[in-house]
Write a structure and sequence with these properties.
This protein is α/β, with parallel strands linked by helices. It has a single domain, classed as 3-Layer(aba) Sandwich (Aspartate Aminotransferase, domain 2), CATH 3.40.640.10. The chain has 9 helices and 13 strands. The strands form 4 sheets. Strands 3-11-10-7-6-4-5 form a 7-stranded mixed sheet. Strands 1-2 form a two-stranded antiparallel ribbon. Helix 3 links the parallel strand 4 and strand 5. The N and C termini lie far apart (about 45 Å). The relative contact order is 0.19. About 0% of the residues have low confidence.
Length: about 280
């Protein structure tokens, strides 16, 4: 007999693809949907799995480009590559550390298919609505901004899809775990198929991105205690980092070996910020 800890997420003929009703996986999805005012929440095994599933839902073809920030964890760019896309980095705002419509416009080409926007340090800053006016679907990497709110919207809920992380040192930490949120029925179904082996081979090729019940129980407990706009870290700029300083991000992503081939010239603001930023957690 399968352990109940591992079987929360499976096909359920009563309501289609998704977690069994009453399971902790089901409960944590309902909690996110109600609290963050989003139509669909799909709990997964990690924030990286959620990002990758969002990229898969875009149905990228070889050569399709996705514009994103070079100031982020490697999983942001990895999700694009794993979904078959090409990473195109854009510079960021020197005050907010995030993409702006102006920096994104400079990188748009005939091959651009989407924007992957990164929320940093727990804050929901910038304007997703302004980016959406560029005519491209926007996916939000809100892995560091669970509960981040600006105006009437929570981070992750403004674009076509958003991804949260419940890994170590996040606002809600369950050791691991992630969540894809979306207001699109199509994206939600694609994500559920992707994370459960194409629903056991009845759909497209998929992966094992299922969470377990123990993780979901921890996520649910953490969400009950979460306060909105809880910072992941507080960044500040120094003239020069010391030899014992441990920066959160010490270089733009395009300087990492895995992503060097996507470098198309220097992005001066991103390079300056990564050289001078320290974070206090």
């Amino acid at each position: 007999m399968e352990s109940k800890l591992l079987t929360a997420y499976r096909a359920n003929p009563n309501h289609g693809v998704g977690p069994c009703e009453g399971s902790y996986a089901w409960k944590v999805e309902r909690e996110i949907e109600q609290r963050f005012r989003v139509r669909h929440a799909v709990v997964m095994s990690s924030g990286t799995a959620s990002l990758h599933s969002a990229m898969v839902a875009l149905a990228l073809r070889p050569g399709d480009e996705v514009i994103t920030s070079p100031i982020s964890f490697a999983a942001t760019a990895s999700a694009i590559v794993l979904a078959g896309g090409v990473v195109r980095f854009a510079d960021v705002d020197p005050r907010t550390f995030v993409l702006t419509p102006e920096t994104v416009k400079r990188e748009i080409t005939g091959k651009t298919k989407a924007i992957l926007y990164v929320h940093l340090f727990g804050a929901s800053v910038g304007s997703i609505q302004s980016l959406s006016q560029l005519g491209l679907p926007v996916v939000e990497d809100a892995c560091q901004a669970v509960g981040g709110e600006t105006g009437k919207h929570y981070a992750g809920t403004c674009g076509i899809a958003g991804a949260y992380s419940f890994g170590g040192r996040k606002q809600v930490t369950a050791g691991e775990g992630g969540m894809l949120v979306t207001n699109s029925d199509t994206v939600a179904r694609s994500a559920r198929l992707t994370m459960n082996h194409g629903e056991c081979f009845g759909g497209p090729v998929g992966y094992n991105y299922r969470p377990n019940e123990a993780t979901c129980k921890l996520i649910l407990a953490g969400l009950k205690r979460l306060k909105d706009n809880t910072p992941f870290a507080v960044p500040y700029l120094v003239k020069k980092r010391g030899p014992n300083d441990k920066p959160y991000i010490d270089r733009p992503l395009y300087e990492l070996p895995a992503f060097q081939k996507y470098k198309r010239g220097n992005l001066p603001v991103a390079e300056e910020l990564t050289r001078r930023t320290l974070c206090v957690r």
